[in-house]
Specification:
Blueprint: H1 2-21, E1 23-25, E2 35-37, E3 47-50, E4 53-56, E5 70-72, E6 79-87, E7 92-99, E8 115-119, E9 155-162, E10 165-170, E11 173-179, H2 183-191, E12 209-212, E13 219-228
Antiparallel strand pairs: 1-13, 2-5, 3-4, 4-13, 5-12, 6-9, 6-13, 7-8, 7-12, 9-10, 10-11
Length: 229
């Protein structure tokens, strides 16, 4: 029995190690290596790093420049993205995925990439629109309410795209689960602001870059990691 217990413990320990090894850090906590502002070669100076956190400081911009959406250098197919965010009072930001990093073709990351909304639900006016609240798939799907912490507190997010299914979690609770590319998905886009004609490639490619949105408000991110599925 003792040998069996030891063997079982060894298997469980190995399984845990293997699970941890699948994660790849996208943010080393000290630099912006692996990231760049959309349309630029490096991260804008308004993206500042302190104590393992990357924060958009809008006051560090000069004539509106120095920020921009922060985009991963690497593109991803099926993946499990996990991170934490904390927004300022009345703040607005977002976590975009499937972004096509082609600034000469697309003016903004949101022309191609869907967005997991980051928002101060109690203070930002966008929260009055039900599909624009934190935890929603912005302007597409309203998520389950009641799982978002207020401004100034950390929220944990999981974005899982696997075999045509998209799952979004807020603080370990699934708030949205939907299929990608089917007729229902196309109808969601058609009825949204993204289906109005000037964004014909929005939500059509299910691989791409991750982006952290510069919406002009202070926002912080940390513990950014990903698994390729």
């Amino acid at each position: 029995m003792k040998k069996m217990a030891l063997a079982l413990f060894a298997i469980l320990a190995l399984t845990q190690v293997n699970a941890q090894e699948k994660w790849t850090s996208l943010f080393d906590g000290t630099t912006t290596n692996g990231w760049h502002s959309y349309g630029e070669k490096a991260a804008g100076v308004a993206w500042k790093i302190t104590e393992g956190t990357i924060t958009l400081d809008p006051t560090a911009k000069t004539n509106g420049k120095g920020g921009g959406d922060l985009v991963t250098n690497e593109s991803f197919n099926d993946f499990h993205l996990q991170l934490e965010w904390k927004v300022s009072k009345n703040g607005n930001s977002g976590i975009l995925f499937f972004v096509q990093d082609e600034p000469k073709k697309y003016d903004y990351t949101f022309y191609t990439g869907p967005e997991f909304q980051v928002l101060d639900n109690d203070g930002h006016p966008d929260a009055k629109i039900i599909s624009h609240r934190a935890g929603n798939l912005y302007d597409l799907i309203v998520g389950n309410e009641g799982h978002v912490k207020p401004y100034g507190e950390w929220n944990k997010v999981d974005v899982i795209s696997s075999k045509g299914v998209l799952e979004l979690k807020m603080n370990d609770i699934t708030v949205i689960k939907t299929h990608l590319g089917d007729d229902s998905w196309k109808e969601l886009i058609r009825r949204s602001k993204f289906g109005k004609g000037d964004m014909p490639d929005f939500g059509k490619v299910f691989s791409g870059h991750i982006a952290l949105q510069d919406h002009g408000n202070e926002v912080s991110y940390r513990n950014i990691k990903i698994q390729k599925l």
